[in-house]
Amino acid sequence: MTEGTTSAAAEGADTLTRLEQEGEIAADYLEGLLDIADLDGDIDMDVEADRASVSIISDTDGRDLQKLVGRDGEVLEALQELTRLAVHRETGDRSRLMLDIAGYRARKRSELSELGAKAAAEAKSSGEAVKLKPMTPFERKVVHDAVKAAGLRSESEGEEPQRFVVVLPA
């Protein structure tokens, strides 16, 4: 093994350790939040695509946790930002942590991937650009990835919170 390989492996391990630490801090923060709100939920931590990922899952039907998702995921987005701030306070580093509650983001990701694939198919068949409704950064990222997987390009246009994806024909 060369010295460069060793340092790259060590750097990768350091990143994983840092992301695992972010997950631990986030889990502790969210456990406290669940206790305060008197809600039941299990916390699952993972590292996905170079970011810490924390999920709150219910061992029941998950209706209690829907309060933490809110309408169109608004409460979930706010909790994610608060959790990122808690991680930042502990580590001093900006976090890109993703939070999912009761499988909301996983379902949303699936729906958005399908939307991106349909928009790509429409742009291919019509030869016209397809404009989608305004979306959050997370939603746009999922759609961009689906369009890319379909072999087309897409761009984001507009200003937040009215920023939207445009799927471009080949």
Automatic annotation (TrEMBL):
GO MF: RNA binding
InterPro entries membership: Jag_KH, KH_dom-like_a/b, KhpB, R3H_dom, R3H_dom_sf, R3H_KhpB
Top-level taxon: Bacteria
One Pfam family this sequence matches: R3H
SUPFAM superfamilies: R3H domain
Residue span(s) of domain R3H: 106-170
Organism lineage: Bacteria, Bacillati, Actinomycetota, Actinomycetes, Kitasatosporales
Protein name: R3H domain-containing protein
PANTHER family, A to Z: PROTEIN JAG (PTHR35800), RNA-BINDING PROTEIN KHPB (PTHR35800:SF1)
